[in-house]
């Protein structure tokens, strides 16, 4: 049914995950479950294809023949066709069954496309590594459209941090934290801000190590060394020192050390073997 087009795909069982789920992480995907014998499908299909061509890649239309892909159709809960699903970020965002009038279908497509603010935020995220200043400008534009967009606010804080504008980044994150709106990435940025601020207080790791070695029983100096090591991204040794402080002074410096370890876990991310190992060790020390 589909024409040859970059924005219209006839999928297969082997390619469905890549065509739909993976592709939806970068562009909205509209999945049209149809069959050659289905007359309503043959009415709806050309309209969807024309809209895909008109939108020039703003969404991708994936055609899924239910005769060839009955198991995939069943996994989507398809009971009658045509059945159309919108997928973004590998998640279902909207759907309908049957044939919609063209005006109604156009409105549906418009609804599932990214807003101007989302497009700006997506552009900003792509620019972060290469041009933080341009990324900052895009995030600010996005926030003019949607001031309460949490992901854009965290993104702005992240780009400010990359430019060493720490106080404004801190203000953004503090406001989100006060509202209980910090997601996992926001917590990671919050941890990085705290580490950056620690670096301003602790001096270099070499200075902190020399002081700690000169007075090894002084827990304050051990704590200062741990903070200096984190600021220098020497995470494992910092966590070793923090763990000892938790074991030796649980309700004093040990509590501050515990908080610092949690910040390191967030900096390293959930997939880090090092973070997971020290998370286990910290749990054993606490309980």
Quick overview:
By secondary structure, the chain is α/β, with parallel strands linked by helices.
Write down the CATH topology of the largest domain.
Glutaredoxin
Tell how many strands the DSSP assignment holds. 5
Mean model confidence by pLDDT: 93
Major beta sheet, strand line-up: 1-3-2-4-5
- Cα-to-Cα separation, first versus last residue: 63 Å
Strand content: 5-15%
Gyration radius from CA atoms, angstroms: 26 Å
What's the order of the H and E elements? Answer: EHEHEHEEHHHHHHHHHHH
Q: Unreliable segments (pLDDT under 50, ≥5 consecutive)?
A: none
Helix content: 55-70%
What is the makeup of the main sheet?
Answer: 5 strands, mixed
Number of helices: 14
Coarse shape: elongated
| CATH class categorisation of the largest domain | Alpha Beta
| CATH superfamily descriptor of the largest domain | Glutaredoxin
CATH-defined architecture of the largest domain = 3-Layer(aba) Sandwich
- Give the number of domains: 3
Based on secondary structure, the structural category is alpha/beta
Descriptive account of the structure:
This protein is an alpha/beta fold. It folds into three domains: 8-112, Glutaredoxin, CATH 3.40.30; 116-182; 200-286, Alpha Horseshoe (Serine Threonine Protein Phosphatase 5, Tetratricopeptide repeat). 62% of the residues lie in helices and 10% in strands. It has 14 helices and five strands. The protein has helices spanning 16-22, 39-55, 70-75, 102-112, 116-127, 132-145, 150-162, 166-178, 184-202, 205-214, 219-231, 235-248, 253-268, 273-286; strands spanning 8-10, 29-34, 60-65, 83-88, 91-97. Strands 1-3-2-4-5 form a five-stranded mixed beta sheet, with helices on both faces. Helix 2 links the parallel strand 2 (29-34) and strand 3. Helix 8 (166-178) crosses helix 9 (184-202) and helix 13 (253-268) runs antiparallel to helix 14. The N and C termini lie far apart (63 Å). The model has no long low-confidence stretch (mean pLDDT 93).
